[in-house]
């Protein structure tokens, strides 16, 4: 299945149709400002990251086995999630824009248990070859390398990345009144990452997950 030694993975929640529709609407606005930006589609799937790591391809089955035990106990599809606004980070000179999700005790517990399950199989020093695509920027590689501790635990910011645009446009969008909404997760999957941390290629889906629409 995997022809590389090390892969960059994203263990993620697959959002329901409510979030998919909202994130695609935001993505359309971003692409109006920056047409070269990516569209949310099968190779740029909307998602809520739980963990990003480098793992050895030969350990992938062990990773999924460990995660399955966590998911049986935590029942992530029963989580109720709520958004609270937009945020962005500048990657590769563009503003990667996200819909921020509130941290709840249940989500944080799931986040930590996923970290613990994957920890024995995590490795360092991944390269661009671990990702999908040929134009992986250094910021993307560094993000996965340092996800723990820079983006985990107290630093964990659950979100759905909606796309990229010019920073001044995203600042204006962020200043607009924001209408929060709630959504749920249809399931959990592992994707191989692409540039800008996109969920580029599905590698595994928990068998209790709802079919993707």
Automatic annotation (TrEMBL):
This is 2'-5' RNA ligase family protein. It comes from Pseudomonas cavernicola. Keywords: Ligase. The keyword Ligase applies. GO terms for molecular function: ligase activity. It holds the Pfam family 2_5_RNA_ligase2.
């Amino acid at each position: 299945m995997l022809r590389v030694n090390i892969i960059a993975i994203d263990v993620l929640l697959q959002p329901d149709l409510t979030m998919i529709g909202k994130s695609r609407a935001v993505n359309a606005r971003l692409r109006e400002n920056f047409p070269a930006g990516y569209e949310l589609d099968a190779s740029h799937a909307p998602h809520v990251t739980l963990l990003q790591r480098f793992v050895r391809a030969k350990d992938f089955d062990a990773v999924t086995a460990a995660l399955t035990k966590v998911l049986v106990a935590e029942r992530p599809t029963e989580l109720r999630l709520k958004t609270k606004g937009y945020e962005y980070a500048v990657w590769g000179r563009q503003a990667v824009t996200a819909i921020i999700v509130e941290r709840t005790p249940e989500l944080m517990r799931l986040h930590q248990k996923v970290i613990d399950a994957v920890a024995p199989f995590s490795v360092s020093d991944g390269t661009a070859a671990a990702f999908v695509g040929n134009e992986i920027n250094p910021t993307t590689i560094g993000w996965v390398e340092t996800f723990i501790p820079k983006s985990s635990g107290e630093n964990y910011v659950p979100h759905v990345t909606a796309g990229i645009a010019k920073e001044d446009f995203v600042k204006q969008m962020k200043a607009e009144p924001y209408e929060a909404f709630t959504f749920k997760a249809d399931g959990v999957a592992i994707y191989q990452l692409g540039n800008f941390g996109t969920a580029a290629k599905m590698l595994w889906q928990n068998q209790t997950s709802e079919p993707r629409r």
